[in-house]
Amino acid sequence: MLRYLLLEALRHSAMHGYEMIKWFEERTYGKYSPSPGTVYPTLQLLQDQGFIQAQKQVERSVYSLTENGRSELATHANLIADFWERYARPAPSYATLPEVSFLREELSDLNRVVEQGWPCAIQHDNPEAILQMRHALEGCQNEIRSIISQCSASHAATPSEVQE
Prior knowledge:
single chain, mainly alpha, Arc Repressor Mutant, subunit A, 2 domains, two-stranded antiparallel ribbon, 8 helices, 2 strands
């Protein structure tokens, strides 16, 4: 996977190895930071395969994508998209981390309660109980959607932020 991620980094601009590491750290909010011990051998492999080229500048090599590299990147676009789907979201701040952990635990508990409860309603042939559970879950979802939309609206970009 690192091969394709390095090609992705170079799609944006030519960089040296440590710039790529920093590029990943910034774009994944610190959740992914490949080590130099994996980056440089992988860069050498990509160079040997003709996907990138290196130019020596002062004491560093600056890598850039070749046409073969662009083709290889396009071939694996789905893998790259999957990676960004997982890692390109901001991590919770230190201040909100306990609440995020609590939220995850509560969601897990809710799932466990529902999974344990609805078979009982089925076993006792109680469609009313199943309907009540469904309505309760729908209400919970709607309330959470409302909170999310309020949060999104309060953080919407202003016209000056969009231009920047």
